Every structure is written in C-alpha cells, then in structure tokens.
Amino acid sequence: MDAAYTGSRISLLRKQNNFTQKELAEKLHVTDKAISKWERGLNYPDLALLPVIANVLETSVADLLGLEQKIPDSTIDVINEIAQSEKKRLLKTIHQYLELAIILGVVTILNKLYISYTGYIGESFNVQFWIEGILLALALTLITNGIWLLIKYKKFFV
C-alpha cells in the first residue's frame, strides 16, 4: 500500500465528485486537515473508514488503495465484512449501555416513589438514600458512556 497513491486517488475522486476537502470531511465526520494529510500522502485513513470513503467517492476500497489488480475480490469482501462486524459490535455495545441505563433509571424512579410513599423511617433512611444514590450514579454513568460511544464512533453509523 502506498500512502501517496491512496492520497492522490482520494484527491482525484473528490474533485471528480465536485467536493471540497471540507465537504468531504463533513460527509466522513473527520476534519478537513485529515483529508489534506491523506491527499498529501502523510497519513492513511482508518481501516474501518475506507468502505465509507469508497462509498462517498463512488469507488471500491481496492481502487482507493491501488490494489485493484493485486488483491482478489474475496479479500476485499473479507475487509468489508470485518468493518461491518465491528460496526455491529459497537452498535450492540451502545445498545446494551443504553438498556442498562434505562433499567437503572426506572429502578431509581421506583425506589424514589417507594421512599416518598413510605417515608424515611429510622435507620432505613441511610440504606434507602445510599441505594438511590448508587443507582442514580450507575444510570448516569451508563448514559454518559452510551452517548460518548455514539459520538466517538459516529463515523461508522453514516
């Protein structure tokens, strides 16, 4: 693989599709500086981002990498399958975080309603108070992690 070839190919296809570096960057959820580095051959795009770039530029991953004649289609298919399985794994992880957050949120609300209904009585106040606090902290942590994962891996879900 040659970074200079890949960069010049991205540049050529970007111009053929009438995209500026900034427009392409927005479509790929990267910075225009990253596009510039790719086009100058200073850096490669992430492996998982290659199918997205190829799709936006209406070409194949093999063409972007200059491997059209060197790598059989089955190898390219395997690379695409790996990218898709990684996307599915990330979606499943985010889904699990958000499910746990919802469950803990509901349990926290039910606990709060129970405490409000029964009132704080003697020693049970401390136990109920700490249970409520721990459940709320866990729910907020899971929600925050789920949102962080969605933001961090946004480029995979375009």
Automatic annotation (TrEMBL):
InterPro entries membership: Cro/C1-type_HTH, Lambda_DNA-bd_dom_sf
Residues in HTH cro/C1-type domain copies: 10-64
Pfam families listed in its UniProt record: HTH_3
Segments crossing the lipid bilayer: 97-117, 129-151
Gene3D superfamilies assigned to the protein according to its UniProt record, in alphabetical order: lambda repressor-like DNA-binding domains (1.10.260.40)
Keyword entries, A-Z: DNA-binding, Membrane, Transmembrane, Transmembrane helix
A GO molecular function held by the record: DNA binding
The protein's name in its UniProt record: HTH cro/C1-type domain-containing protein
